[in-house]
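Why show two proteins at once? Because comparison is the fastest way to build intuition. When a single record is shown, students tend to memorize it. When two are placed side by side, the eye starts asking what differs. So, the first record is below.
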Amino acid sequence: MNSSPCQDRLVRRPQRRPSFTAYLGVAILAMALGPVSCTTPLRSNSDSGGTTRDLDSAVNTNGFTQVSTSGWVICGLRRDGSVVCAGENSDGEASPPTGKFAQISSGGTHVCALDVESRISCWGANSLGQSTPPSGQFVQISTGLTHSCALQPDGVVICWGSNSYGEATPPSEVFIKISCGEYNTCGLRQDASITCWGYNDSGQTEPAGPFIDLSAGRYHACGIRPGGRAVCWGGNPFGETNVPNSTFSQISAGAFITCALVENGRARCWGGFGDERAKVTSPPSDVFAQITVGGGSACGLVGNGSVVCWAGTPVLALEP
């Protein structure tokens, strides 16, 4: 079957981490290629050696309470606790199991979720054990490119999957929230300080606290301080750590983009390159309850339970 440029970009498989210079080369090439129109729904893509799940098959009438995107796959948690996904599906990452869940997290090409009994289920790629979770009960889950971490009720973090850069080796400390980046992980301690472990060649070392929220991306990470001021650190080739002057309630870091919610629920985004920069920095005027950024994709959960996405190739959207 013939494939479109949008599909080719979406189903590009994550490989062993290239150098940061290589990523800059990809970005420069993307700018040279010019804009790509990405308005068609996803379809099977035999040319890539993989498949995508049709966007229309993910549309439901139940509404969502959470959404999570990795750039390869987007998943929504319905009000009844079921999960629906769309996007790359070569490893089954867009084919969630049945059951009732309380939280989801989309990684590179795998997804993990906490069910209503606080147990973890993962699906999708598992070549490095990223979809083989531990047993037990947990209060939060977070997925990176090829690793995953979960927070136990006692605040201890357990990680599994790839550990090439120490991203799956958490410190022996107590945390209240965790966030997996592509090759690193950050945790929010009880004293409101942040510590990160894993890949750090771009200066992802965290600043001093206090913080109330955090999000780890590809080469950068961000946090929100008490009072709503946001701080980002790490790689900044496209302005992804140049936080605008505003007060925020939630923040999400991706590859070369960052988005955050201001106090009135509007989204503000910064970073991005080429044609994507205009999309990233021009979010819709909806009032959002939650935002999610993964890779180059940015999406938000509207109060009525619908999902709106405004960046990525193609731009995905799940409707209730």
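Second record. Ask yourself what differs from the first in the token line.
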Amino acid sequence: MPVPIIILIIFLSLLLLYLIIEVLEHLTAFKYETIENNKGLGEDVRVVLLSDLHNNKKLDEKKIFEKVREFDPECILIPGDLVEDRKDKSDNAVAFVAELSKTAPVFISIGNHEEYLKERDEKAYKETMEELSKYATVLSNATAETEHLNLVGLTVPTWFYWTRMTPKKRNLPVIPPVISNKFEILLAHNPEYVDMYERYSPDLVLSGHMHGGIVRLPFLGALVAPGLSFFPRLTSGLHTENGTRIFVTRGLGSHRLYARFLNKTEINFLTLKGCKKE
């Protein structure tokens, strides 16, 4: 085959790949999930879960806000990575949260990119958190309550995202326990440490971070985690790990060189089914 033809085929293949990635960044999947067997809930509770916005400005925000309003949730839960690790990449995240807050209370926990921003520019981090706090409750190793839920927001150091240490050497923060006995949701950005989250006794853990595996392959599923481990398990949907239930969202954005392939951004509309008292 002539060299010019080979070059043309390579160019067209790369162009097609780029176009697919661009299209997927604009498309968002609205996933409606029902989670059963929620002891401690006397009635059904609706919550919206979204994560890993990374200040994404390519979303169809009008449609997103419309879908959230239609769902009419008790609260909107965001387990981290709203922003990037630079102050100039947080403006859209603040505006996004401000609009969401018009529908329901918003609760945010801290992800690794908020922590990276803090390490790089603590003043910018404080300013960003102050702006977000005008429209949402930021839970950094803290708790809050809604009508039916206890919410716990976990913050861990950045090295938790890159170093797999033995359980005995990993120390999670001590969070003051919630007093009421409502259904408890733990917002923990990184699902890879689910084996350690049982110490907080959550009824359900909500996580993001994995970007759905970045690349998803037919029949194989997720290819790679943000920490560059291959074929990660906990990248999407509901799982039970040693008795701890965890739901992982694929998130709303990407960052730096991480693109998405066959892996649309998503928002999860969760209905937590109540258990009738016997």
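One difference worth noting in the second protein: The two ends are 74 Å apart (CA to CA).
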